[in-house]
Amino acid sequence: MSELLKVPTMAEYMAEGKQPEVLFWVGCAGSFDDRAKKITKALVKLLNKANVDFAVLGTEESCTGDPAKRAGNEFLFQMQAVTNIEVLNAYEIKKIVTACPHCFNTIKNEYPGLGGTYQVMHHTQFLKSLLDEGRLTIEGGKFKGKRITFHDPCYLGRANNVYEAPRDLIQKLEAELIEMKNCRKNGLCCGAGGAQMFKDAEEGDKEVNIERTEQALTVKPEIIAAGCPFCNTMMTDGVKAKEKESDVAVMDVAELIANAQDL
Amino acid sequence: MSYLSNILFALILIAGIGYFIRNIKKLIRNIKLGKKVDVSDNRSQRWRNMAMIALGQSKMVRRPVSGLLHVIVYLGFIIINLEVLEIVLDGFFGTHRLGLKVLPVSLYGFLIGTFEVLACLVFISVIIFWIRRNLLKLSRFWKSEMTSWPKNDGNFILYFEMVLMTLFLVMNASDVEFQALNSGNIISQYITPWFSGMDTSVLHVIERAAWWLHIIGILVFLNYLYFSKHLHILLAFPNTFYGNLKPMGQMTNVESVTKEVKMMMDPNVDPFTAPVEGAEDDVPEKFGASDVQDLSWVQLLNAYTCTECGRCTSECPANQTGKKLSPRKIMMDTRDRLEEVGKNLDANKGEFKDDGKQLLDDYISKEELWACTSCNACVEACPVSIDPLSIILEMRRYLVMEQSAAPAELNSMMTNIENNGAPWPYNQMDRLNWKNEA
Predict the structure, then answer these.
(1) Is there a single domain that holds both residue A123 and residue A155?
(2) What is the model's pLDDT at position A2?
(3) Distance in angstroms (rounded) separating the CA atoms of residues A231 and B325
(4) CB–CB of B409 and A75 under 8 A?
(5) Is B434 in contact with A75 (Cβ distance < 8 A)?
(6) Is the pLDDT of residue B91 over 80?
(7) Mutate which of A12, A78, A104, A203 to test chain B, going by most B C-beta atoms within 10 A?
(8) CA distance B396 to B370
(9) pLDDT at B264
(10) Which residues of chain B does A155 touch, with a Cβ-Cβ cutoff of 8 Å?
């Protein structure tokens, strides 16, 4: 690693009497899952590079409650939500960026009713705005001409109508963006949502992630781009199951941009 | 002829419409068994949605073949029904083709000609629908929930429409005076030769028979709606009006839970104080839904609106990979159970008598509920804004909060969240460790 990551916490900002431009909500996967941690670091590198004044909650962050809510445990969800909102409001957070569409959806849509209203952005939207403002540039051209297909995360796409930001970023890499049979509004789930990530699937004749991976492989991509740590896991597992891991990489959009400039 | 036919007509019309109204009242009563929900917001957006989605068929045409055919049948249905106005007035007043008396021949001919062309197009479209259903056997029409009544229902509707369109064209073809005008008989002039050589009086009988059967057929069809998936031609309008306007990913926050959570989090509340007298009234009997009465009235309206097209099920990732879940079945089960509850009310003077059954387990199994990935593909696919996912979530809430009946793996996920603020067994104090890992 070339240089150490700068990851200030809200507590540190508070101690200095400062307020960051944006809070980076890391999420459970981004904090603990080995694969997702790489996405977290890629995003931090980009934020550092663009000199974004950001902070994380660190040990004060806790699960948004998304999987509990979707499993039907509204009590646990609201306990988590109210606790998180107390922390966020105490720090007077206005703007949040997250690399997890589940955290994004929950904080953006379900927290306001419980007293927590913030401007919430998915990291692809935030990176897009950094590029648009000229704070971040994509150099290198490492992915020029590469066939990349984007898998729409349900909680980013259908759930919140964000389809273009990740695609704009991929196109900025001068890559060849190819669409799967099911994309955008008709995107096919990776199989992890609604708390399925944490349990075995019900009996059937196939796993959902295999179905989706097969769809992706039909368009012969070199890279399957994802925008969600859970989709990433599901698609990575799918590619492994199809024994294609030497030909096809599964990468988060943030990783693509960070890698393009060798960060 | 005396006024006998006028009176007979009036009686048939009154009986047909009367029975229909009776069933609609029952329908409204059943829907009102659902819980109250506030949908008074964003009126203008709601009107727009109704105009675009129900009237404008905007979501139907996402599948171009069935979408286009549906638009033809739908337009035909609406426009040809203008002809019914004439039939009804003729029936009441004992007149024949009243339109000719009030409209110029050319305009009347234009109208009837349009109806004839539409009737022909509807007939062809309905035949294609039938072929798709029965010969091409499109998989969404042959899923496990599409046996017996649902399967027959789909075909009966097509037969009905074929017969009604035929009767309309035969009525025009056998009308000697109308054919003599040679205006508006665009299609029927090709049917007229079938009757060549027949006596005028026989033709008159054929014309009258087609006329009577057409109007009686329409009344029978009107009354068939309540028992059929075809109810969507009426309910698509309120259903798209009351459809969800929030982002699809936003699930409702249960208000009663909010109250309890706020109380638990409030350090000023003494947990041992006796509850205030009367304050208990606000606490619902149960969390989530195990039966239709626990759902909202919009969800029940959804169930009656479903026309079992199966677009939801064909988009469902769980169904595509062979799991038991079918969002269409969720809607069909909800309607069937609601009808059962309604009949129970009818049989017991409006008082529901426990029948030992409920929506959960007796209709919808836990296996179906736990197969959902909450991806919203079914919601997106529905051409009339039905939300099967919201019912699945309500039933999961019942399973988890009332019965603690979540799958074991989900229980450990939830225990982890409760204890360490993450769905996995990692310590919250380690949340920032990634920062220093190579």
Answers:
(1) no
(2) 47
(3) 21
(4) no
(5) no
(6) yes
(7) A78
(8) 8
(9) 83
(10) 249
Each residue of B400-427: pLDDT tens digit? 999 999 999 999 999 999 999 999 999 9
User: Which chain B residues are closer than 8 Å to A186 by Cβ?
Assistant: 315, 377, 380
Position B5 scores a pLDDT of 86
State whether residue A152 is helix, strand or coil. Answer: coil
Cβ atoms of residues B250 and A110 within 8 Å: yes
pTM score, two decimals? 0.94
Does one domain contain both A72 and A99?
A: yes
Q: Which residues of A162-182 are buried (b: 16+ CB within 10 A; e: fewer)?
A: bbebbbbbbebbebbbbebeb
Domain range summary for chain B, segments of one domain joined by +? 4-31+63-241, 255-261+285-425
Instruction: Indicate if the pLDDT at residue B294 is higher than 90.
Output: yes
**Burial environment of residue B433 by CB neighbours within 10 A (0 to 12, 13 to 18, 19 or more):** middle
Q: What is the CATH number of the domain that holds A207?
A: 3.40.50
**A198–B423: do the CB atoms touch at under 8 Å?**
yes
Contact B421 A61 (CB under 8 A): yes
- For B438, nearest residue in chain A (alpha carbons): A1
Digit-coded pLDDT (tens) for A168-215: 999 999 999 999 999 999 999 999 999 999 999 999 999 999 999 999
Residues of B in contact with A83 (CB under 8 A): 265
Using an 8 Å Cβ cutoff, are A217 and A247 in contact? no
Contacts of B372 in chain A (CB under 8 A): 194
Looking at residue B408, its amino acid is A
- What architecture is the B255-261+285-425 domain classified under in CATH? Orthogonal Bundle (1.10)
DSSP letter assigned to residue A148: E
Looking at the structure of chain A, the number of domains it has is 2
Q: How many angstroms separate the CA atoms of B283 and A225, rounded?
A: 47
Q: Using CB atoms, pick whichever of B376, B406, B410 lies closest to residue A158.
A: B376
User: Which of B258, B376, B417 comes nearest A68 by C-beta?
Assistant: B417
Q: Cβ of B249 and A58 within 8 Å?
A: no
Q: Report the alpha-carbon distance of residue B356 to residue B241 in Å, rounded.
A: 35
* Nearest residue, CB atoms, B374 vs list A70, A109, A204: A70
Residue A62: pLDDT band (50, 70, 90) is very high
pLDDT at residue A140, as a whole number: 65
Question: With contacts defined as CB-CB under 8 Å, which chain A residues touch B262?
Answer: 82
Contacts by A83-90, CB closer than 8 A, 24 or more apart: A83/B265, A84/A111, A84/A116, A85/A111, A85/A114, A85/A115, A85/A116, A86/B265, A87/A57, A87/A60, A87/A61, A88/A23, A88/A116, A88/A118, A89/A115, A89/A116
User: Is residue B277 very low, low, confident or very high in pLDDT (cuts 50, 70, 90)?
Assistant: low
pLDDT in tens, B309-352: 999 999 999 999 999 999 999 999 999 999 999 999 999 999 99
User: Which residues lie across from A24 on neighbouring strands?
Assistant: A97
Domain that holds residue A87: 10-130
Residues A36 and A95 in one domain: yes
Conformation bin of residue A262: beta by default, left when phi > 0, alpha when psi is -120 to 50: left
Chain A positions touching B253 (Cβ under 8 A) are: 74, 78, 110, 113-114
What value of ipTM does the predicted structure carry?
Answer: 0.95
Compute and round to an integer the Cα radius of gyration of chain B. 28
Across the interface, whether the CB atoms of B423 and A63 are under 8 A apart is answered: yes
Give contacts of B429 with chain A, Cβ < 8 Å: 59
Say if residue A1's pLDDT is above 50.
no
Model pLDDT, residue B273: 65
